[in-house]
Automatic annotation (TrEMBL):
<keyword id="KW-0805">Transcription regulation</keyword>
<feature type="DNA-binding region" description="H-T-H motif">
    <location>
        <begin position="57"/>
        <end position="76"/>
    </location>
</feature>
<dbReference type="InterPro" id="IPR009057">
    <property type="entry name" value="Homeodomain-like_sf"/>
</dbReference>
<feature type="domain" description="HTH tetR-type">
    <location>
        <begin position="34"/>
        <end position="94"/>
    </location>
</feature>
<dbReference type="InterPro" id="IPR001647">
    <property type="entry name" value="HTH_TetR"/>
</dbReference>
<dbReference type="Pfam" id="PF00440">
    <property type="entry name" value="TetR_N"/>
</dbReference>
<keyword id="KW-0804">Transcription</keyword>
<feature type="region of interest" description="Disordered">
    <location>
        <begin position="1"/>
        <end position="28"/>
    </location>
</feature>
<keyword id="KW-0238">DNA-binding</keyword>
<dbReference type="GO" id="GO:0003700">
    <property type="term" value="F:DNA-binding transcription factor activity"/>
</dbReference>
<dbReference type="GO" id="GO:0000976">
    <property type="term" value="F:transcription cis-regulatory region binding"/>
</dbReference>
<dbReference type="InterPro" id="IPR050109">
    <property type="entry name" value="HTH-type_TetR-like_transc_reg"/>
</dbReference>
<protein>
    <recommendedName>
        <fullName>HTH tetR-type domain-containing protein</fullName>
    </recommendedName>
</protein>
Amino acid sequence: MSGIVESAGTEAARQPTGGQGGMGLPEGLAGQSRTVRRALLDAALEVFTERGYTDAGLTEIAARSGIPVGTLFQHYGGKRGLYLALWEEFREEQERLTAVTLASERSRGVDDPIALFVTGARAYLEGAWDNRRLGRLLVEDDGPAGFDALRRQWDRAWVRRNARLLEVDERRRAGRVRVSVLTTVIGGAARELGDCGDETEAREIVDEVCGILLHLSAPPG
């Protein structure tokens, strides 16, 4: 579940249109730039969550962030860039959590592919609960043009990574299908977590899903 699928959209979302990022800037200016970008992303998440992507307005996002619209365009190029930057942030944090968890398990001597897979899935689902507001936004059908294709691209890469983690022979159709089903279960559970009423309910779902994954992960025969 680690690794990054790059695209022109996400790369552009991370860099100002003038081609100046934090690299090479004095520390004070770099810190100021990070603060501005954080304020813009937080405001964008609020407005996207309340109004949906289509009805969200850049003027309102700028007003809530306290950042001029022109600066918003400089950093993100518009509404699409903001949305893709939020998605990239969610993916990177989820992948970081999973990678850290798997590294910790391996350092303890755990090498069973199924145990590692289920532990990684638990970390992913717990992260989905912690970041549920952003997660709910990203599974809606209301996103920028081309986002569905980008999401499908990442989903395919996610299946491939899970196949490697489970040590499944991707040349065998049955193996590929099994990993695809397991990955779909995790994605569906992550969406359900976005609607949980409290942490107790969320933990029950995570435990239930990990039990299902443990059962389904076992190779046939």
